[in-house]
Structure formats: C-alpha cells, structure tokens
Amino acid sequence: MLNDLFINTLLLISFTFVGGHISREMSERMKNKFVSKVILGIAGGVLGILMMVYSIQVGTSTLLDLRSLSIMMISSVGGLVSTVITGIIVVIYRVGHFGINQSSMFAIVHVVLYIALFSTVNKMIKTPWKNWFAKLAIVILILDTTFLYLLKDVQNHYIIIFSFSLVVVFTGALEYFLLKYAERANELYKVYKADSTKDFLTGLNNTRQFDKLLNMSFERVIENNEKLSCLMVDIDHFKKVNDTYGHAVGDMVLKELAEILKKNCRAFDFVGRVGGEEFCVLLLDCPAARSFEIGTRIRNSVKEHNFPIGDNRFIHITVSVGTATYPENVENIEEIVKKADIGLYKAKQTGRDKVCDYEQCLELTTST
Fold first, then answer.
1. Domain count along the chain
2. Catalytic amino acids?
3. pLDDT digits over 74-107, tens only?
4. pLDDT digits (tens, 9 = 90+) for 22-51
5. What pTM value is reported for the model?
6. Bridge partners of 235?
7. For residue 54, what are the β-bridge partners?
8. Domain span at residue 60?
9. CATH number reported for the structural domain that contains residue 59 in this entry
10. Assigned domain for 200 exists
11. Are both 19 and 163 inside the same structural domain?
C-alpha cells in the first residue's frame, strides 16, 4: 500500500514544482484569466487521474489514493472554477474507468462536498495556513467516515484507515510547505528579474536593460520608417557636489534628477542611467527639432529645481545635454548614442548648461 501512496505523493510534488516553474513567468492578471483557470483545472484533473492509476483497491471496489489532495491543492491555487473542472474530470474518470458502484457513488459525493466546502473555507478563512489545514481536516473527516462504512467487512480495516490517514496528513502538510516554498521562490524570482533590469539607486533602466531597449528601438525604427532621437544628459560639476556635501547627498541628487527626466519625457520613451552621473533618453518617433525642445525642457527644469540635501537645505545644479536624431543628422542608426555623446562633449567643452548636437548648441539663459 505504501508504495502506491508514495507514488501519489511524488506525483503531487512533481506537479507542484512544474506548476510553480510555469507560473513564475505569469503575471497576476494572467493567472486570473478564465482560460488560465481552465488550464489549471485540467492539469488538476490529470493529476487526479494519475493518482487513481496508482490507487490501492481495498475490498471489492474501494480505491485508496490521494486525489482528494489534488482537488484541495487546486482549490487553494486556482479557486472555484479550477476546482469544479478538476472535480468533473476526476468523477468522469472514476466512473468511466472503474464503473458505477457504491464506492464510485461515494466518490462523486466526495467531489461535490469538496467543491462546496473548500469554496466556503476560501471565503471564510483568509489566513493561508489556517485555510489549508481546515481543508485538510475536512478531507480526513470525509475520507475516514466513508471508509469506516465501506471497509467495515475488511479485515484490519481500522489499521488500514489509520495508516491511510497518516499518509494523507503527512502528504497534505508537506504539500502546504512545498506550495509556500514555490510561492516564495516565484516572488524572489520576480524581484530579482526586475532588479536585474533596473538601476539600484534611481529605479531607471540600467545599462544592460537600456542596451536591449536600444536594439529593440533600432528594429522598430527601421521596420516602421520612423525617426529616433537620443539624449545624453550629464550633471555639470557633479564631483564638486560629492566633494562638498558627500556621496549620500550626491545619491539624493541623482534620484531627484531621475524623477525630473521621467517627468519631462513622454510615457513611451526609454530613460536609463548609463554611468555615474550620466543618463540616456531614447525618444521614439521624434524628429530633431522636437528632441531639442525636450532636451531644453529637461535643462530648464533641472536648473530651476530645488534639490533637497537634508535639514531643509537645497542646492541647484545644471546639466549638459547632447542630442542626435536618425536619420536627420545620423546616417547610421547604430551610431546614434555615439553622436549624442559627441554633442554632450561639445556642450561640456563650450561652457556647460547647454543642449547641443555635434553641429550646433542651444544656449538658453531663461526658461522656454
């Protein structure tokens, strides 16, 4: 008996880890879609069938397996719709493969009770561990009550029921901790995945992610015959800020500048931190004249902004901006960042606090 129940346990563990691996790439919105719940219900039904394949027949037609835990697991993960689908598949296989008899009628009643009671528990008990073990208690109560009746004429039926109950309790408790482990692992995976694309200080795209977005932008621009502008933004005399006020204040300035950049760019533009105090902005479908306007708006916003440095004190900084636009002043799209960098260098060399491409500079002393 224990060998087949051990296989049932391994099946449950395998489905838990495979399902966890698949779901880690899914957003909560995708998980809540009806189609996703249907697929989850079908998967639960397949798990229940496999458990019945490795069930233990006691008496004339009574089957001992852990299919109840598969329904319970689907109820906790997928909710009512998934549970109903799993239950229907389990019932169809139980009756279709093993025939209609007293045990199969009880199996149908079990499924109906599980669906109703598990749904009630989900509504009434929100604490995860209390929810899970309340359902496990329901499973034990229903199974033990049923088997005490069905196996009353079987020799040593008390020992069989007791041993089976221990396996259900052990596997149910193990499954709870496996589900929590998979959930926590998925949460950490999503956090690490997000962190791998974001600059730790400013929350902007980091260099690695910005390179990916740059290549994606190249493909889009060429495919749609659009224009692409690039802004290189660098803080003027940033070393002086660090030397005068300390690196902690320097970090505050960088975070504040990141917010200014996001606020002054369009929602679909890409902003990244590509160096210590150097930022890059990709302006999608943006001509040269418009890129100068956005660069100037950024320059003026920074110049007018009060950068907090603690203790209700503020400082002012300026930025230099280099700009380049494909195909207006950049023939090779892959050189657009290099050309914008040349414009930035020109702005630095000609006095800073300017917006320049490699041909001309806008030197404004008032807001526009």
1. 2
2. 277
3. 999 999 999 999 999 999 999 998 889 999 999 9
4. 888 888 788 889 999 999 999 999 999 999
5. 0.70
6. 319
7. none
8. 2-195
9. 1.10.1760.20
10. no
11. yes
